């Protein structure tokens, strides 16, 4: 049975690009809503809608990640069981 842990880590450059992209998108959207020629209630509604969309996207990303990690854990348990069965199996043993 292997004891190597599952390690999936993104690079610092990828993390920085993701953070910068998110910051630029939020700033551009906020500037667009602020500069919009509409009543204050319309701008407020759009701002709340954007915030709701962002929180929903974070929640969805977390749920997808949690499902993937749970699937990996189940897969590792199944792999360990298979390795134990193969290690205990003696093809030359008489039945």
UniProtKB/TrEMBL annotation:
Gene Ontology cellular component annotations, sorted alphabetically: plasma membrane
InterPro entries, sorted: YiaA-like, YiaAB
Stretches assigned to the YiaAB two helix domain: 14-66
Keywords of the record: Membrane, Transmembrane, Transmembrane helix
UniProt GO BP: DNA damage response
Residue ranges of the TM segments: 12-34, 40-61
Pfam assignment, any one: YiaAB
Domain of life the protein comes from: Bacteria
This protein's record includes keyword Lyase: no
PANTHER family from the UniProt entry: INNER MEMBRANE PROTEIN YIAA (PTHR37290:SF1), INNER MEMBRANE PROTEIN YIAA-RELATED (PTHR37290)
Protein known as: YiaAB two helix domain-containing protein
